[in-house]
Design goal:
elongated, 239 residues, alpha+beta, five-stranded mixed sheet, single chain
Length: 239
């Protein structure tokens, strides 16, 4: 009788052990299933962040209401999706242009503020007023020497280089002058060259300016256009 009881107790113990092992295996399987689902979902999230299309059936459905970055096709058209059109880069400058090199130039004059002098602007780096003047072919721009601190030329073209040559007369009133101005200097798009001016007491001084497109200067018969700068001391010398 005692042997039978011991056999039944041993069988009961083994049955309990098998049930415990079975429950443990079920829990491990559940944990593995959750881990696989989490990994699949994480892969989809990473794919979305990386601009890729999630794979259908891999944890989360590949359903989306908007195109992913870099996707082409009609659905990525800003006009159709309601998205804002791409903004032009900040360095991409554009302005109205002309086929004439002179009409792509601006003459820049720098003047002192009221109550100040040009020497304050040139030597003390005081604030000043800059004025843009637009020359036309065969015309003349007038400037008051008594209120003129610097005089410059800028190429307003956004694509083409202009070669500019200024008459030797500029040296009469220039404190310092770049010699290339008198022989011909190439101004790339958006480039300018400034010359500091001394307030001499002269009645009038006319300075000729010639301009030609750089890509045409070596042609057999390049088109050279010109205009003039007339410098007159209307106010008192030394202002």
């Amino acid at each position: 009788m005692t042997a039978i009881n011991r056999s039944e107790a041993r069988s009961t113990t083994q049955l309990r052990r098998l049930r415990a092992v079975s429950a443990g295996l079920t829990a491990v399987a559940a944990i593995l299933a959750l881990s696989v689902s989490a990994i699949a979902q994480s892969s989809d999230v990473n794919a979305i962040l990386g601009g890729e299309t999630p794979t259908a059936g891999a944890g989360s459905p590949a359903v989306r209401s908007a195109p992913f970055p870099g996707e082409t096709g009609p659905s990525s058209d800003p006009a159709l999706t309601g998205q804002a059109a791409p903004i032009r880069p900040g360095t991409d400058e554009r302005w109205l242009t002309s086929d004439h090199p002179v009409e792509n130039l601006s003459v820049i004059s720098v003047h002192p503020l009221p109550g100040e002098k040009c020497q304050d602007v040139l030597f003390d780096i005081r604030p000043s007023t800059r004025v843009r003047h637009s020359p036309n072919i065969d015309t003349t721009l007038d400037f008051d020497l008594g209120e003129l601190c610097l005089l410059g030329i800028r190429n307003e073209s956004d694509r083409r280089t202009v070669v500019v040559r200024v008459g030797e007369e500029l040296k009469t009133v220039a404190i310092v002058s770049d010699s290339r101005l008198n022989s011909g200097i190439a101004l790339g798009p958006g480039r300018e060259i400034m010359t500091p001016i001394r307030p001499l007491d002269v009645k009038a001084l006319t300075v000729g300016v010639e301009a030609v497109w750089d890509d045409q200067i070596d042609a057999a018969d390049p088109t050279v256009e010109s205009f003039a700068l007339r410098l007159i001391n209307k106010s008192k010398p030394g202002s």
